[in-house]
Amino acid sequence: MDVLDIGCGNKKRPGSIGLDINPSTSADVVHDLNVFPYPFADSSFDEIHADNVIEHLDDVIAVMEEIHRLARPGALVRIAVPYFRARWAWIDPTHRHAFTVDSFTYFDRNHVHSRLYNYSEARFDPERIVFNETIPGKRLTRWFANLQPVRYEVKLSHLLPLDDLTFYLRAVK
Question: What is the pTM for the complete model shown?
Answer without folding.
Answer: 0.94
